[in-house]
Specification:
- The protein has 774 residues and is α+β, with helices and mostly antiparallel strands.
- Helices cover 19% and strands 27% of the residues.
- A hairpin with a 5-residue loop joins strand 31 and strand 32.
Length: 774
C-alpha cells in the first residue's frame, strides 16, 4: 500500500505516527537541485523537472514533466499573452530555495522538490502534497503516437478555504469543497479550468485536454489531465476575485462591448416556423408597447442541415430582416457546426479533410476550415442583414464530452484539445465578422465555452435544462460559478428548455416562468426560449402573469443606463456584472456557501425565488453600512438574515447604501428616447461612486475613443452629490442631459416606476455640478 492510500484509509492517530516514522528517512530521499536560468527557475528531482516562470509580480507559470518541461498542449490559442519573464529573486535558505516577486513567494523544498506558494508577507496560500515527503506530481505514460502522460497534481487544503469557478456545472452548489468536477464539455456542463479560492489565489489549469478537479477528500485538491505532454498551470494572486479575473483576462483576452440593444430582451422559442410569424412577433410587441430588442429564428429554417438555403417558409429572409429593422429590432439566427452529407459545404469540407467526426463537425483548429465555414454559411446570412448568431451544439454534440479522441486535428492529436471547440468556433465568427465590418458589433450565443472565449464577443447559455423549479435553482449557482470563472456574459432559457414542456396557460407553469423571468432580468443577457406545449412563449401568452412579466421587462429597460455602464466596466476594467457574494465579501465566511443570492453590479442584491407557492424567502444581507428595500425604500442593517416578502409579482431586491443608480425612461427598445431625463437615485449611508458611460450604441468606434464618461460621486460626510465634468465625446452625442435626483427613503424614489415628484432636477452641460442635501 502506498503512502497516499494509507493516508486515505487510516485514522488520524495512525497517520501522525506514520509521519513521525518516515520523517527521518523518506524526507531526505529526493535529490533536488535548483538553479536560475534565463527563463526562470529550474527544479530537478529524481522523478521530474519543473520550470517556474515569474510573469510579473502576481503571476507564476509552472510547467513540469519527467524530462524537459513542456506545455500541456503544443498549441495554446487560449493564452494570447505568453509569459514575459518578470523580475524575481532566488535565495538559498536552510532546507529550501525562496523565489520572490513583488507580490509572491515560492518555497522550493530541497528535501522533496515540493512547492509552497505564499504572499509577499510569507503567509501560505497553497501547498503541494499531503505530507512533505509525498510525491504529489504524477506522470503516468499513456500509449499514443507521441509521448503523453496522464498528469495529476495534488495540494493541501486547510479547513478555512472555499473554491469556485471551473465553468458551469449543474451541482446546485456554489462552493466545490467536497466535490469532484469533470472538466469536459457537454450540453448544460461547461469546462473552464480556472479555479478561484477564498485564500486569494487562482489556478488556471492550462490544458484543453479532458481534466478533473477532485476534492472529494476535502483535505486534498487534486487536478488531473488525460494524455497531455506535461504539467502546466498558472498561479494567479489577487487577492480579490476581481484582481484574479483581471490577471486571467490579461492572459487570455479582454471582453468586447456588445451593442446596447444586446442588453435588452431576446424573444425566442423552439421555434418560429415562418418568416411571417417572425416578423409578426415583433409587430405585436410594438403594438402592445412591450419592450423588445431581438427576435430569434431557431433551427430548421434550412433546406438541409448545415445548408445556407432557406426552405419555402422563408421565401425572402432579407426582406423579413428589413421589416424587423424598420421596427427598431434585431434578428439572431441559429446555425450549427455540422452538415448534412447532401450539402455543398459538407462535400467541400469532406474533400479537404476538414471533418472530424461522423456527425459532420468541422475542424475548428484549421484556419482554412474556419475560412470555409464563414464563406459558405455565416457570411451569406450577414449579407441578408442578420445581427447575431446562435452557435448551437458547440461542444460539439457528436462527442460525449467535447471533441472525440482518436482524430487528427489541424493542431494535432484530438485528445489534447477535447475542450477547445467552442473557443475556436466562436473565434472564427468573431474574427471574420470584425474583418468584414466595423459598423456592427459582433454578438454570438453559444452552448459551451473555454478559456479565453470572452474575447470573441460570445455569450454562453446554460443549455437544454428542464422547465421546473429544480432547474431554475440549479441555474443560479451554475451561472455564478461561470461568472467567477472569468467569462462575464451568461444567460439561460427563461422558463427552461422543456421536458416537461410547460403550457403557458397552466397556472403552475406560469409561476415557474414568472419566477424565472424575474431572475432573468438580473442576468447579464436577458433571454427567453424553450419548448412550450401550446407552442407559444411570448409575454402576452402567459395570461394573468403577463402584467408581472411586463413590469419586470420595463424594469430591465429602465436599468439600461446602469447595465450599459457596467458593460463598459467589463470591457474597460475587466469587471464582472453577475457576482457571487464571495466576490465582494471574501472575508465573510457566512457568504461562502450562499448559492442563491448574488450582486448585480455594485448596487443590487438579488434573491430569486425558487420554490412553488412561496410568498417569502430567507435573505442574508451581507455586512454593509446599510441596505434599502428597492420596492419600498425601507432601510435595513447589514450582516443579518431576514424573512423577505416575495409575492409572485416581486422578488427580494435590495440596494447597498452608497449606491448611485441611474435609471432611464420607459422605452420599447434600446436608444428609443435619447433626450429623455435620467434619474439618479442616491442611497445614502455610505460614500458612493458611479461612472455613467455613453456612446453611439453600436459600431467599434468606441475602441478608437468615441465615447463619453460622466463621473458621479456621493459624499456622505458633506451630504454632497458631485456630477463631474464629462470626458470624451462621440458623433451625435447630446450636449445636455436632464438629471432628476432622488435621495431614496421610504415611499420616495423606490420601485420600478417613474416618480412624479423629484428632489432636484437640473440640466447638465458637461461641466462639474455639486448639489448638497438641504
Amino acid at each position: 500500500m502506498d503512502a497516499q492510500a494509507i493516508y486515505l484509509s487510516a485514522p488520524l492517530w495512525f497517520l501522525l505516527g506514520v509521519a513521525v516514522l518516515f520523517s527521518g528517512t523518506e524526507l531526505h530521499s529526493e535529490t533536488v537541485s535548483v538553479s536560475q536560468i534565463n527563463e526562470g527557475v529550474s527544479v530537478k528531482t529524481n522523478r521530474d523537472q519543473l520550470l517556474i516562470q515569474a510573469c510579473g509580480d502576481s503571476v507564476l507559470h509552472i510547467t513540469g514533466g519527467p524530462e524537459v518541461p513542456k506545455p500541456s498542449s503544443p498549441q495554446q490559442p487560449w493564452i494570447v499573452k505568453p509569459c514575459t519573464p518578470g523580475h524575481f529573486s532566488l535565495a538559498k535558505e536552510d532546507k529550501f530555495y525562496l523565489l520572490s516577486t513583488g507580490e509572491l513567494q515560492v518555497k522550493i523544498s530541497l528535501d522533496s522538490g515540493g512547492l509552497v506558494f505564499a504572499n509577499k508577507a510569507g503567509n501560505s496560500l497553497l501547498t503541494e502534497g499531503i505530507w512533505s515527503w509525498s510525491s504529489t506530481r504524477h506522470y503516468d505514460p499513456v500509449q499514443t503516437q507521441d509521448r503523453h502522460y496522464n498528469v495529476s497534481e495534488s495540494f493541501q487544503m486547510p479547513e478555512d478555504e472555499a473554491i469556485y469557478g471551473l465553468g458551469q456545472h449543474q451541482t446546485g452548489l456554489l462552493n466545490y469543497r467536497g466535490l469532484a468536477v469533470s472538466l469536459a464539455q457537454n450540453n448544460t456542463d461547461v469546462a473552464v479550468p480556472l479555479l478561484i479560492s477564498t485564500r486569494g489565489y487562482g489556478l488556471l489549469w492550462n490544458t484543453a485536454a479532458r481534466s478533473m478537479m477532485n476534492n472529494q477528500f476535502p483535505r486534498t485538491l487534486r487536478l488531473s489531465a488525460d494524455g497531455v505532454e506535461g504539467l502546466d498551470f498558472y498561479f494567479l494572486y489577487g487577492p480579490e476575485a476581481d484582481q484574479i479575473i483581471h490577471l486571467y483576462r490579461e492572459l487570455t483576452g479582454h471582453a468586447p462591448l456588445f451593442g446596447e440593444w444586446a442588453y435588452g430582451l431576446f424573444q425566442s422559442k423552439d421555434r418560429y416556423e415562418t418568416q411571417d410569424e417572425l416578423v409578426g412577433i415583433v409587430s405585436k410587441y410594438r403594438d402592445e408597447r412591450v419592450p423588445l430588442d431581438t427576435v430569434v429564428q431557431d433551427w430548421q429554417w434550412w433546406m438541409k442541415w448545415g445548408s445556407n438555403e432557406f426552405n419555402s417558409k422563408y421565401p425572402d429572409f432579407a426582406a423579413a430582416v428589413n421589416k424587423i429593422h424598420d421596427q427598431h429590432a434585431h434578428v439572431m439566427i441559429s446555425i450549427w457546426p455540422n452538415f448534412d452529407p447532401a450539402t455543398p459545404i459538407w462535400k467541400e469540407m469532406n474533400d479537404r479533410k476538414f471533418l472530424i467526426d461522423e456527425k459532420g463537425d468541422y475542424d475548428v483548429t484549421s484556419p482554412e476550415a474556419r475560412d470555409l465555414y464563414w464563406k459558405m454559411l455565416p457570411s451569406t446570412l450577414v449579407a441578408k442583414g442578420v445581427d447575431a448568431f446562435w452557435l448551437d451544439a458547440s461542444e460539439p454534440e457528436a462527442g460525449d464530452l467535447g471533441i472525440p479522441s482518436g482524430h487528427k486535428l489541424g493542431f494535432g492529436e484530438s485528445s489534447l484539445y477535447t475542450n477547445i471547440f467552442p473557443l475556436l468556433h466562436t473565434y472564427g465568427i468573431y474574427d471574420h465578422w470584425r474583418r468584414a465590418s466595423e459598423q456592427k458589433r459582433v454578438f454570438t450565443l453559444t452552448r459551451s465555452a473555454f478559456l479565453g472565449q470572452q474575447r470573441n464577443a460570445a455569450v454562453t447559455w446554460s443549455g437544454d435544462v428542464y422547465s421546473n423549479f429544480w432547474a431554475l435553482k440549479h441555474q443560479i449557482s451554475a451561472g455564478l460559478n461561470f461568472s467567477i470563472s472569468g467569462i462575464p456574459y451568461w444567460t439561460t432559457d427563461i422558463g427552461g428548455y422543456g421536458y416537461p414542456n410547460g403550457d403557458t396557460s397552466d397556472p403552475k407553469y406560469q409561476e415557474v416562468f414568472t419566477r424565472w423571468f424575474e431572475y432573468g432580468v438580473f442576468c447579464p443577457i436577458f433571454r427567453t426560449h424553450g419548448h412550450r406545449a401550446n407552442n407559444q412563449n411570448e409575454i402576452w401568452a402567459y395570461g394573468s402573469a403577463a402584467p408581472t412579466l411586463e413590469k419586470f421587462d420595463n424594469l430591465r429597460y429602465r436599468l439600461l443606463p446602469y447595465i450599459y455602464s457596467l458593460a463598459w466596466q467589463v470591457t474597460g476594467n475587466d469587471y464582472t456584472i453577475m457576482r457571487p457574494l464571495v466576490m465582494d465579501w471574501r472575508g465573510t465566511r457566512q457568504v461562502w456557501d450562499v448559492s442563491d443570492e448574488f450582486m448585480f453590479g455594485p448596487a443590487f442584491l438579488v434573491s430569486p425565488v425558487t420554490e412553488a407557492g412561496a410568498t417569502t424567502r430567507s435573505v442574508y444581507l451581507p455586512p454593509a453600512p446599510g441596505w434599502y428595500d428597492f420596492w419600498t425604500g425601507e432601510g435595513l442593517h447589514g450582516d443579518q438574515t431576514i424573512q423577505a416578502a416575495a409575492p409572485l409579482d416581486r422578488i427580494p431586491l435590495y440596494v447597498r447604501a452608497g449606491s448611485i443608480l441611474p435609471l432611464g425612461p420607459e422605452i420599447e427598445y434600446a436608444g428609443a428616447k435619447p433626450g429623455a431625463p435620467t434619474e439618479l437615485r442616491i442611497y445614502r449611508g455610505a460614500e458612493g461612486n458611479f461612472v455613467l458611460y455613453e456612446d453611439q450604441g453600436d459600431s467599434y468606434a468606441y475602441e478608437h475613443g468615441a465615447y463619453s464618461t460622466i463621473p458621479i460621486r456621493w459624499d456622505e460626510a458633506s451630504r454632497t452629490l458631485t456630477i463631474g465634468a464629462r470626458t470624451g465625446s462621440y458623433p451625435g452625442m447630446l450636449q445636455q442631459h436632464t438629471f432628476r435626483i432622488f435621495w431614496v427613503k421610504p415611499g420616495r424614489g423606490s420601485g420600478p416606476g417613474v416618480p412624479i415628484t423629484v428632489d432636484r432636477e437640473f440640466v447638465y452641460s458637461g461641466l462639474e455640478r455639486r448639489i448638497t442635501v438641504p
